[in-house]
């Protein structure tokens, strides 16, 4: 271990299980084709709910990654994390063994954790009695278990933790993992976010606080970031995982390198439980800190993967933050919200959006903001409406903001040795 903060960190593996694709290739194809992952809820009977649609994963088989006994003892959010992590390791052709296990860590964020198990076990408690509750209830529902079980199922024995910063959790996990490698605490980190909160209680709760869209008659057009007629976000589920490596370690093993992570900015609004500070002041500062951390100027930014929730408050605030942090250059870059296709994965969103941002750099193409019909007058940037775009992406930022005032920006750039 060293105390250097000069170690360079690169992205060598990616994994994604999302509402628009259950592999990295399918996810990218979905992003590029503007695939819509939003539809009526099938995971439970939502007929009594004010909001009856979500962005669910389709056709996920946990047994492709876990044996039946292990899968049965895991909540869906942890299954998704283990699966996406195994995808990322395979993508990177990275093998964890006795020689390197203690230098490989795991940091996976989630906003809510095992809510489905908690709901089910409370029903057991109320109808059958407390002595009938599962002995696996607690280890299945606690938020850190995605990271813990990923380590168990991959053999990673290095630093292991879990960020629980609401909708910023996945991006916090990636940023903190970046720092740990910079500081020499690990040579590689499995990091990102996961969430599986399309459950009766979750949908009811978000609906009660008026965060969701209620476009039940037209769910396919409900997630419409930056559009004048947006009315709330669409709940989604899934997991996105990045394998980060110290650069020299990656080069020594001949790894393919998607991009380099160079900056991490973190701030807090210190303002409201669920609302955002007007004008996106602290969100802008997170973007500025990430650029400063990476030694970047505003003119170097090509693309911003926006938090872009499709809520009345977030989108103009984030637009203001982008303009504050990038100045006049904000009008010369591409900005898009992939939540228009995937819905909002809460703590998992920073994971799949980090994957999208890295691929935009690696493939010089940016995903669109679908369902964009008429811009809100306060949202006056280039949001890549409705169709993906070929674009030389040298440097990109990924924003995530969470209830509690958490603001996170990650900065990635094309890798040059």
Automatic annotation (TrEMBL):
<protein>
    <recommendedName>
        <fullName>3-oxoacyl-[acyl-carrier-protein] synthase 2</fullName>
        <ecNumber>2.3.1.179</ecNumber>
    </recommendedName>
</protein>
<dbReference type="InterPro" id="IPR017568">
    <property type="entry name" value="3-oxoacyl-ACP_synth-2"/>
</dbReference>
<feature type="active site" description="For beta-ketoacyl synthase activity">
    <location>
        <position position="167"/>
    </location>
</feature>
<dbReference type="InterPro" id="IPR000794">
    <property type="entry name" value="Beta-ketoacyl_synthase"/>
</dbReference>
<keyword id="KW-0444">Lipid biosynthesis</keyword>
<dbReference type="Pfam" id="PF00109">
    <property type="entry name" value="ketoacyl-synt"/>
</dbReference>
<comment type="function">
    <text>Involved in the type II fatty acid elongation cycle. Catalyzes the elongation of a wide range of acyl-ACP by the addition of two carbons from malonyl-ACP to an acyl acceptor. Can efficiently catalyze the conversion of palmitoleoyl-ACP (cis-hexadec-9-enoyl-ACP) to cis-vaccenoyl-ACP (cis-octadec-11-enoyl-ACP), an essential step in the thermal regulation of fatty acid composition.</text>
</comment>
<dbReference type="GO" id="GO:0004315">
    <property type="term" value="F:3-oxoacyl-[acyl-carrier-protein] synthase activity"/>
</dbReference>
<keyword id="KW-0808">Transferase</keyword>
<dbReference type="GO" id="GO:0005829">
    <property type="term" value="C:cytosol"/>
</dbReference>
<dbReference type="InterPro" id="IPR014030">
    <property type="entry name" value="Ketoacyl_synth_N"/>
</dbReference>
<feature type="domain" description="Ketosynthase family 3 (KS3)">
    <location>
        <begin position="6"/>
        <end position="414"/>
    </location>
</feature>
<comment type="similarity">
    <text>Belongs to the thiolase-like superfamily. Beta-ketoacyl-ACP synthases family.</text>
</comment>
<keyword id="KW-0275">Fatty acid biosynthesis</keyword>
<keyword id="KW-0443">Lipid metabolism</keyword>
<keyword id="KW-0012">Acyltransferase</keyword>
<dbReference type="InterPro" id="IPR016039">
    <property type="entry name" value="Thiolase-like"/>
</dbReference>
<comment type="pathway">
    <text>Lipid metabolism; fatty acid biosynthesis.</text>
</comment>
<dbReference type="Pfam" id="PF02801">
    <property type="entry name" value="Ketoacyl-synt_C"/>
</dbReference>
<dbReference type="GO" id="GO:0030497">
    <property type="term" value="P:fatty acid elongation"/>
</dbReference>
<dbReference type="InterPro" id="IPR014031">
    <property type="entry name" value="Ketoacyl_synth_C"/>
</dbReference>
<keyword id="KW-0276">Fatty acid metabolism</keyword>
<dbReference type="InterPro" id="IPR020841">
    <property type="entry name" value="PKS_Beta-ketoAc_synthase_dom"/>
</dbReference>
């Amino acid at each position: 271990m060293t105390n250097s903060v000069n170690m360079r960190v690169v992205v060598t593996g990616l994994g994604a299980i999302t509402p628009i694709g259950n592999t990295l290739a399918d996810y990218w194809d979905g992003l590029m084709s503007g695939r819509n992952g939003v539809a009526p809820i099938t995971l439970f009977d939502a007929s009594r709910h004010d909001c009856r649609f979500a962005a669910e994963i389709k056709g996920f088989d946990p047994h492709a990654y876990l044996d039946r006994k292990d899968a049965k003892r895991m909540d869906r959010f942890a299954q998704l994390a283990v699966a996406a992590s195994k995808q990322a390791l395979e993508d990177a052709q990275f093998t964890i063994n006795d020689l390197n296990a203690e230098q490989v860590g795991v940091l996976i964020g989630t906003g809510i954790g095992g809510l489905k198990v908690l709901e089910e076990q409370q029903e057991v408690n109320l109808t059958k009695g407390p002595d009938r509750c599962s002995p696996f209830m607690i280890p299945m529902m606690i938020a850190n278990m995605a990271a813990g079980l990923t380590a168990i199922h991959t053999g990673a024995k290095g630093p292991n933790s879990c960020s629980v910063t609401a909708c910023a959790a996945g991006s916090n996990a990636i940023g903190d993992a970046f720092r740990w490698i910079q500081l020499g605490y690990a040579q590689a980190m499995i990091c990102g976010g996961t969430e599986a909160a399309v459950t009766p209680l979750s949908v009811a709760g978000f609906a009660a606080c008026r965060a969701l869209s209620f476009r039940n008659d037209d769910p396919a057009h409900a997630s419409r970031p930056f559009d004048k007629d947006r009315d709330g976000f669409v709940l989604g589920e899934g997991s996105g995982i990045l394998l980060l490596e110290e650069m020299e370690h990656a080069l020594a093993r001949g790894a393919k390198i998607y991009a380099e992570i160079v900056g991490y900015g973190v701030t807090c609004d210190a303002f409201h439980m669920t609302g955002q500070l007007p004008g996106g002041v602290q969100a802008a500062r997170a973007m500025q800190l990430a650029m400063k951390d990476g030694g970047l100027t505003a003119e170097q930014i090509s693309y911003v993967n926006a938090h872009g929730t499709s809520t009345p408050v977030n989108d103009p605030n984030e637009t203001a933050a982008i303009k504050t942090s990038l100045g006049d250059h904000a009008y010369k870059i591409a900005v898009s919200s992939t939540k228009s296709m995937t819905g909002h994965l809460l703590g998992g969103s920073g994971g799949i959006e980090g994957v999208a941002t890295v691929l935009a750099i690696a493939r010089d193409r940016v995903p669109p903001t679908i369902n964009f019909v008429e811009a809100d007058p306060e949202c006056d940037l280039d949001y890549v409406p409705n169709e993906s775009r070929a674009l030389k992406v040298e440097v990109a930022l990924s924003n995530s903001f969470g209830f509690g005032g958490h603001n996170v920006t990650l900065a990635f750039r094309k890798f040059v040795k």
